[in-house]
Every structure is written in structure tokens, then in C-alpha cells.
Design goal:
about 0% helix, about 70 residues, flat, mainly beta, 6 strands
Length: about 70
């Protein structure tokens, strides 16, 4: 999993066998309407990532379960 700073366009790129075998999670930019907060919760069985916009609405997510 890759968590990165802003590219002014937030996005969660799901794993892709041809391009990336792991998720890419990119936060938004610094202006109103493009900011995001990335919330991460983890336990022994999974990691959950939730990306929230300025108003607290979830705009992207990813869950990785233990194998």
C-alpha cells in the first residue's frame, strides 16, 4: 500500500495485476473542495483506509485483509 501527498486530485487506485499489485492512495490538494483527510484503522486482521473530503464525506476507501 502506498499513501502519498496531494496531486490536487484525490484518488484511490485499486491493485491492478498489469500496473501495480498494491493500492495507491493519493490525498487531495490544499484548496477548499479538494482537501482530504486519510483515516487509517488497523487490527490483527485488517487495515482499513478511508479518505474523507472537506465535509467529512467518504470519497475513497480500501481494506486489506490478513492472508
Amino acid at each position: 500500500m502506498v499513501l502519498s501527498g496531494h496531486t490536487h486530485t484525490y484518488k484511490v487506485h485499486q491493485p491492478n495485476e498489469e500496473l501495480n499489485k498494491y493500492p495507491l492512495i493519493i490525498g487531495g490538494g490544499p484548496r477548499d473542495g479538494t482537501r482530504t483527510l486519510t483515516k487509517i484503522t488497523a487490527n490483527a486482521n485488517e487495515i482499513k483506509v478511508s479518505m474523507l473530503d472537506d465535509l467529512g464525506k467518504e470519497v475513497g476507501s480500501y481494506t486489506a485483509k490478513r492472508k
